[in-house]
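QUALITY CONTROL LOG
STEP: pairwise intake check
CHECKER ROLE: data steward
CRITERIA: each record must contain a sequence immediately followed by its structure tokens, with no blank fields

ENTRY 1 OF 2
RESULT FIELD BELOW
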Amino acid sequence: MKLQSIFATLAVIFLFACQPATKEANNAQANQTGWESLTTTPPMGWNSWDSYRGTITEQQFRPIVDYFAVNLKQFGWEYMVLDMAWYYPGPKDWDCVKPLYFDIELTKGENGKVWGPDMIIDEYGRFQPDERRFPSSAGGKGFKPLADYVHSKGLKFGIHIMRGIPRQAVDDLNSKIRGTNLHAADIAVKWDTVKWSNLMYGVDLNKPGAQEYYNALFKMYADWGVDYVKADDMMVPPYHKGEIEMMRNAIDQCGRPMVLSLSCGEAPISQASHLAENANLWRISIDVWDDWDDIVRMFELMKWWSPYIGQNNTWPDADMLPLGMLDVAERADRKRPPRATKLTREEQFTMMSLWSITRSPLMWGGDPLQVDTLTLKLLSNPEIIAVNQNSSNNRQIYHSFNGNESDRIWMADIPGSNDKYLGLFNLSDEDKEIVFDFRFEYLPSKLKVRDLWQHKDLGTFTDKFSVEIASHGGRLYRISNGE
């Protein structure tokens, strides 16, 4: 009987091994490749958008990589991400030394084209780095030399991409789809365009060649040495479920571990399970800037998304940290001059505290080449980063409304310990006392409290802990049994 059982089991295994690929089989394969293991903690790094928009050059990027390697890598900051428009050519009169000014948002097509300007595209309809902006890409090398430089510093390299296929590849070149007899026009969905960019058409997942296009795209990124892909226009209605799955499948087949970050939101919470099955992180908000109202909004969004924090080692993303110097590469029309963040000192502490206790990915957007003392303090506090990287059961436990006053209290568990992390926030326009009653969480009547921002033990408190917090301020603490 035992021998028969063994043969029967082997037969079943053989049968399923021979089945054609299905969505379920692809998901199982994805689990076996372990893409979730790339983000056992929320990713930390830098993104070029808030400070350089789409105009960053290799001459600017390499010193930024050097800065991170020396000053921030030891705290966990590792992903160096070039955001949108690395394939845009510089203006014709640009001499590659002067700062680069052009408006990527308002660029229009010429001579009847529905896109503009002409981009750098290979024979398979794939954007390439502009050689004047990224000289090491010359000779068809792509971003391989730049990725190698990032890796040589012990860091990881990332790029921003737009969902879909370039209009230029469809309407002008009708580029081949690598590995097939099909062309770009065979898979393009011309009604499926981006509201804020004239670059791309959507891809029809039901058309032959669609998955092959994405496979070729991500295989090229793998050959370059890309570690992180931020894919844009994925969740602004409609939710592009098909293209999300095609990207996931393409990454699983590309031969290189690669983090998939989806932008921009607000992500539909009804798709939380689908997101956790296909992406490492996803934006839960529209773009967050240095505006207090954006920070206040995030308290509500993170409260809704808190049940999904860390599910499958994946992360709801509250967007970049607009700290330090922003808009370094000002637009040609001077509407965005270089400036320091508009968030007050207290609002910056609140932002970093909230992003940490909600375990949002930490992607800084300011200019690393102009770092002020406060920004460096916010980014290099190991006790604060530990909250983001090593906590669980993150949740809001208290929310008080009283006129224009609004207190928020968040808490998180510390794995392997009975201690807790505690976040106290004063969202009102006046300084006020915030009170944490230990009975809220049925905690012991005596607790020790440590201020994580000040690296200071505050003593033992009975029944409650209260502290005066400035308007728009936030603080993080560690609490432990005081008996």
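ENTRY 2 OF 2
RESULT FIELD BELOW
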Amino acid sequence: MPEARIAIIGHLSIDEIVIEDERYENMGGVACYAALAARALGADVKIISTIGEDFPKSYLETLRRAGVDLSDVQVMAQGRTTRFEISYLGDKRVMRLLSRAEDIELKLHHEDLDGIYLGPIAWEFDLDSIRRLIEEGARLLLDPQGLMRTIDASGFIRLKRLDLRIPGLWILRISREEAEILANSSKLSEVIDYLGTLGAEVTILTLGREGALILHSSKIIRVPCYPVKVVDPTGAGDVFGGAFLVEFLRSQDLEWAAAIGSAMASLVVESKGLHPLLSPNIVEEARRRARMIRELIKRL
């Protein structure tokens, strides 16, 4: 069948990452990680984003060389790019917003797309715009992280509760931390019950080192992680989502798509930056790992 055609919408960012007192800069944002994962798996990928003139041209060239369509990435004259400082202390992540790009208008011709991945990171569009897209017939995967974020006076990110009951939403991809805020509970059973009330056809609950849970109709499957040494966890959930979307569109096989998502996420965390997503061998290795992961998937 023809390759999946998808658009990924959200701010591309500049991330200043601090791990164990070591600091480095990297391209970031859901749009970046999900697009590279989807493109590695052969999808026809377009990014829709706004950036400032401070966004490094080398980052754009990285995306172009990977085959990502950047024709709808707007460089705003005298604007700033969304920039975060992301610090890791063990499994704890602290984020500070240093600058923010302009909003993104959710107006696009989606009829020729197989799916749209919405990956806001700094409230660059709102829920009303998302609902309008669904009413127009768009098939959406939503990662709500950027809609749930608020900042304090020093720019540090906090999460807030949000009503994510969106009729007609196809796929919801959410982290455990975000889901616990929504459910107002840290008990996994209560989190799962709450997510079931939101109405998404498929819900992907990523659990960090514990893998992921996939909720579909009345079914729940547990997807393990491939065991690796985690060097930098940035973007793992975004990679999972991008890879899952492509494989689910291709195969309609929920378990295989989840296994591929988990496998691709395991590859990106093994080193700093985006290098694993640009490797010519990534698909072969991801499929090898995915076959092992699938054997360990459990239905709950």
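INTAKE CHECK: passed for both entries
DESCRIPTIVE NOTE, ENTRY 2: Residues 236-251 form the longest helix (16 residues).
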